[in-house]
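Researcher: I'm preparing a figure for a lab meeting and need a structural model of a single chain. I don't have an experimental structure, so a prediction will have to do for now. The sequence is pasted below. Please return the structure as tokens so I can convert it later.
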Amino acid sequence: MIRDTGPGSRLWRMAVWAVTLLFCLNLMAMIAAVVLNSFATRWLGTWLPLGFTTRWYASAWDEFQLGEVLVVTLQVVFLVVLLSGLLGVAAAYALARRDFPGKRLVMLVFLLPLLVPPITYGIPLATVLYQAGLAGTLWGVVLANLVPSIPFVVLVMIPFIEQIDPRIEAAARVFGAGTRQLFLRVLLPLLVPGILAALLLVLVRTIAMFELTFLVAGPTSQTLVVALYYAVFAAGVRAGQSIDAMAVIYMAVTLVWLVIALRFVNPTQIVARAKQQGAS
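Model: Understood. Here is the structure written out token by token.
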């Protein structure tokens, strides 16, 4: 492969690096400003705050009832991860191992919640949940988040399942393995990396999912990202430092889970597996 080293190519690479550097600097500056302001006693018209304190975190914890919000967030995330794992892995196995009329249409249906902006189907979904009496409850938030989560698990797991030789399953059945034994002793150990990858990424997506949760959450079923939105835009006077402290807590929670997810899965792994399967 011959690499273009002409002036035009060099200028293009410099422009790409310049735009990337500018984006990273702006992003780091915004994050740094929020973090600094969350510790500032006062920050008006100066490069740095006049002093630092941690009292805004205690204030945010009490004012926005972050203890209850974090409990609700953990409950929603746990239920979404559990249900999307159970339903998504089963659906992925059926799609990976079975050919049936309309399979392409089913795959398209699974793709739609990931390709279409959540707000476009979130409003009709919220209407249905309100009519069913589930909106404003914990289970309403869980059901709304399952709509994009299950397809995500399905699309992540299909390449992992397809790479397993079907003859392994056939051999297990020949030796008398039932469906339960086949899954627990043969398939599950082989699928653990894919399941961990899918569920950890679903976990991060659920923590960050705003649109669907906002449309169906009630006063006692708000996740952290929705509570942050209300803290910023609700009526009343609130200290900016307290809101920024809440934002830092949200960023920290999301970042911790993202780091854990990246510890178990390489973002290019899924694409590479799909390409290998396509090539074979």
